[in-house]
Amino acid sequence: DGMAYGPSESQGIVQGNALYHKAMDFTVNLPEGWTLHNLPDRIVGVSGNETQIIQILPANLEGKSGQAFLAEQFTDFSGGEVLNLSGAQGYTGLASVDAGSGQRLASRVAVVNRAPAPSFQMAGYGENQVPNNAVLYIARSIRSLNAEEQKLATGKKIVVISARRGDTFAKLAQESVIDKYAEQKLRLLNN
């Protein structure tokens, strides 16, 4: 009873296109049709047709402005502009990122300064088109958790119950907080 089940609260909980991170007090949303991958060192968003990628990483601005930070990170940074964000300061522009093999890809880059809360930098690039709108959508979505999202950011725990006469796995699955394949997962957990 009480054992953690599923994604770790300390790593963040992914639900659909959103990540809820209780310890770092933030949420981030990806555009509709994008897939979110919550990795140990970054968040990666992949477009539905898999031709565009956005990487989101922690950013230590060390007191620098967003413009100064991005200019330091990307030597060819240009076209900078302030992002109007709720509860944070943002800055965005264009740069190129190393794609390996000496190849550089045009990229939309941005930084979201939530100081003293954790800040983030992101870069988006694609095969044929830079995901400008998606990067801006994601940057604008980063904010502190509200009360309802605090609940969503809480990891699931196993609760031991005593089966009553008439209980079935199907009935218990309907009452469960398990979102996908609830009946099958309950059967697996109960041997």
Any overview of this molecule?
It is elongated and about 70 Å long. Strand 10 and strand 11 form a beta hairpin. With 191 residues, the protein is α+β, with helices and mostly antiparallel strands. The protein contains 5 helices and 12 strands. It has helices at residues 66-73, 132-141, 147-152, 169-175, 182-189, and strands at residues 4-5, 13-15, 18-21, 26-29, 35-38, 43-46, 52-59, 78-84, 89-100, 103-113, 119-126, 156-157. The strands form 3 sheets. Strands 5-6-7-11-10-9-8 form a 7-stranded antiparallel beta sheet, sandwiched between helices. Strands 2-3-4 form a 3-stranded antiparallel beta sheet. It has a two-stranded antiparallel sheet with strand order 1-12. The longest helix is centred in the C-terminal third of the chain and has 10 residues, at 132-141.
Biggest sheet descriptor: 7 strands, antiparallel
Shape: elongated
> What is the helix/strand order?
EEEEEEEHEEEEHHEHH
Q: What is the share of helical residues? A: 10-25%
User: Roughly how many Å is the radius of gyration?
Assistant: 20 Å
Overall mean pLDDT stands at 88
* Order of adjacent strands in the largest pleated sheet: 5-6-7-11-10-9-8
- Strand count: 12
- Amino- and carboxy-terminal Cα gap: 16 Å
**Uncertain spans:** none
How many helical elements?
Answer: 5
Structural class, by secondary structure, is alpha+beta
Strand coverage percent: 35-45%
